[in-house]
Amino acid sequence: FFQKTLNAVKSWFTLFGWSKGQNPISVPYSLRRDVCIVQLTVAQEKNFQRKVDKDKGFYEMLLHLNGQPIPGIAASQSLPSDPVQRMFQLHWQHSELLSFLRSQGAYLSHVMPEFLLAPEDYEIWTEVNTGLRVGSMRCSGKLSGKPIFILEHKTFETMSKRAWTDVLLQIYKVFVLPRISSRAVPDPSSLESLHNMPGIKSEPLCSNVYSRYERTVLIWLNKQYEKNRKIVWKDSQRGGIPPMRWIVNFDQDLLDGLVLAAQMAAYCPYLIPTHFIKMYTNPRTHEQLLHNSLILVKALHAINLDVDIKV
To answer: Where is the Calponin-homology (CH) domain (predicted)?
Structure first.
């Protein structure tokens, strides 16, 4: 499940995260590399430059999605060549990033700034915090009272990948989803068939799982599915008209492809006779679910909406 989520995150940010077209990313490697322009010295005492395209750095992406920079952090900047000072600045920078995102409503209390560091910087961070390097932050009291997690390299890479994935998901949640306007979603009560179905409230405090913007999307999914299911599959030879359903999540309730097909049919009705009529409306086997998924992907390709979805 995590790998599928990671692939979806990479695809979206690669396609839509940048102001000047596509920019392939890898999580966490390119993100850790592209946070800034850095001059540093490696163990072999060779100098090298981490250089990022002017419009392709991580903070340029954040500026594009948010519309304003993070206070105190420039989109492009150089870091000290001294490894310890570089680590200090990167750790502070990541702390400011997480604080800023949390202030915007992101759920990132479980992500520590050190998990966003590159492996070589994390190693320095552990050495400083355990007193193996002179000028330890712990000895100076700068991190007194804060928990210290010392991870092996493989464990750190796993944690770093998860941390950066969660950061990207929360960036999408707080900067992209709020663009959804509830005015674009008709009142579900306008459909008589929805009167007997429990409603989904969009008020900010009525759910501790989904934000009001996510609930707005759920309301839209329910509305469009109920409005279109009898139209799309009225002549279905593979199960007839599918029954009414209450859509309350973005995984299990979308698994058979029918809900997404109903949304697409609302805007591209010409796909009904060529694609959606061939779907199983009551799929019971993995083969039938795969069949529906293949039709859905082919429909996306037919309208040139190729977002690299893997069946």
So the answer is: 211-311
How does residue 100 score in pLDDT terms, banded at 50, 70 and 90? very high
What pLDDT sits at residue 37? 45
Residue 66: inside a domain: yes
pTM flag (> 0.85):
no
- 242 and 128 in a common domain: no
Are 41 and 24 in contact by the 8 Å Cβ rule? The answer is no
Q: Is residue 307 part of a domain?
A: no
Q: Which residues contact 113 (CB under 8 A, 6 or more apart)?
A: 91, 92, 94, 95, 97, 98
Regarding whether 167 and 189 lie in a shared domain, the answer is no
Q: Is residue 130 part of a domain?
A: yes
311 token code pair: 């069946």
Does 9 lie in the same domain as 134? yes
For residue 159, the enclosing domain spans 2-179
Residue 308 lies in a domain: no
Tens digit of each residue's pLDDT (9 = 90 or more) over 264-306: 999 999 999 999 999 999 999 999 999 999 999 999 999 988 7
